[in-house]
Design a protein that fits this description.
There is one protein chain. By secondary structure, the protein is mostly helical. It is about 80% helix and about 0% strand. It has 21 helices and no strands. The relative contact order is 0.03.
Length: about 375
């Protein structure tokens, strides 16, 4: 073997020894701050990383500042690191997420646009690009970004959730079900996705399909006000009155003066022919409300009619009409019952005249009936004078 080859081998061995020694020294120098960082001792870790001075150490300093909530210093570290080395993909990714967290949406969009351009096979980059665009109210582009994310990874649940949520707001049930079911095939107990599907059916009045989904949410521990409220109404509309009562009672546990729960309970009791309880809860719903109460008084009037208490029904129809003077049916019912109960043509005449003055120009069945009845009453009063 000639001398030249021997020299080359010697230089190579020397280079490897130096390289390995340097790498081992750097590894040793990172051991202490890494240990401090791993145990949450971030301030001491920052001091130790600063002594190392490498790019990896600077990245860890940024992460430590982020962990303790010193976001200004974390930003400075990330931005300095990225500016020095544009190829540090992880640092850029974490910087973009920090921009999002701090509501610096244009900067976040810029970072994730660069990352998706550089790496078109990372679903997280497209997801966070979608988040940045959504935060800037750029919805068509954000939806495209989420769709690219699930094209790369069909099980990317956060992208599927955002697509489902968007289509719930757009009232596009089929699209909601498409994306939600895609996620549920991967994780069947994802409460966020189940909730979206339940809302999509509920909003389209497909209550029989929504009920088992709301029930599943409760089974999974989602004991929330809005779920019990929607379940109560869904059960009530589907004829499941006992189940409706249970949901409304659970809703009252959140707020004992919730007027929707009280009125819903009253209605459920009414459907179950428990009229005393129905009346009690409907009255209580009136007491706690400071809004228009025409529906409640209308319900009480109908309850009174079912009990053949026409005088009380008239009283409640008058109250309902006072609450909503545009509701001609309340006035019409008041006049019909006045006609039946008092048998006094003058009282009936007065009521029908008030109706005709307010609603007589509608030219509908009710106006025609009132006009006809007015003519009959006038004739009746005329005949009594002879």
């Amino acid at each position: 073997m000639n001398q030249s080859i021997l020299l080359k081998k010697a230089f190579l061995i020397l280079f490897l020894i130096v390289f390995l020694a340097k790498g081992n020294a750097q590894s040793i120098s990172m051991a202490v701050p890494d240990s401090l960082y791993a145990t949450g001792n971030y301030t001491l870790a920052i001091n130790e990383y600063a002594k190392v001075g490498s790019s990896n150490a600077q990245l860890q300093i940024a992460r430590a500042y982020n962990a303790i909530g010193n976001y200004d210093k974390a930003l400075l570290q990330y931005e300095s690191l990225v500016q020095k080395n544009q190829s540090l993909e992880m640092a850029k990714y974490e910087l973009g997420r920090l921009y999002l967290k701090l509501k610096k949406y244009p900067k976040a969009k810029e970072v994730f646009s660069q990352l998706t351009e550089k790496n078109k096979l990372n679903p997280e980059y497209f997801y966070y690009l979608g988040e940045s665009l959504k935060s800037l109210d750029i919805f068509p582009e954000s939806i495209i970004a989420y769709k690219k994310s699930i094209k790369i990874d069909s099980t990317h649940l956060r992208s599927l959730f955002q697509l489902g949520k968007y289509y719930v707001l757009q009232r596009e049930r089929d699209s909601v079900v498409k994306y939600v079911d895609q996620g549920l095939r991967f994780y069947e107990d994802d409460v966020s996705l189940i909730n979206l599907k339940a809302l999509a059916y509920y909003n389209d009045h497909l209550l029989w399909w929504a009920i088992p989904l709301f029930e599943r949410l409760v089974e999974l521990g989602e004991d929330k006000e809005y779920i019990h409220e929607k379940m109560g109404l869904a059960y009530l509309s589907s004829g499941k009155f006992k189940e409706s009562k249970e949901s409304y009672f659970k809703l009252l546990q959140f707020d004992e003066d919730n007027p929707k729960a009280l009125y819903g309970l009253g209605t459920a009791y009414w459907k179950l022919q428990e009229r005393d309880s129905a009346e009690a809860y409907i009255k209580k719903s009136i007491e706690v409300q400071k809004v228009v109460l025409d529906k409640e008084y209308n319900a009480l009037a109908r309850l009174a009619m079912e009990q053949n208490d026409l005088k009380l029904a008239i009283k409640y129809y008058k109250k309902a009409y006072q609450e909503d003077p545009t509701a001609y049916l309340y006035k019409y019912e008041e006049c019909l019952l006045t006609d039946q109960y008092y048998k006094d043509p003058k009282m009936s005449l007065q009521c029908y005249k008030a109706y005709q003055e307010k609603f007589g120009s509608q030219n509908d069945y009710f106006s025609e009936f009132v006009a006809k009845r007015l003519s009959e009453i006038k004739e009746e009063i005329h005949m009594k004078t002879y």
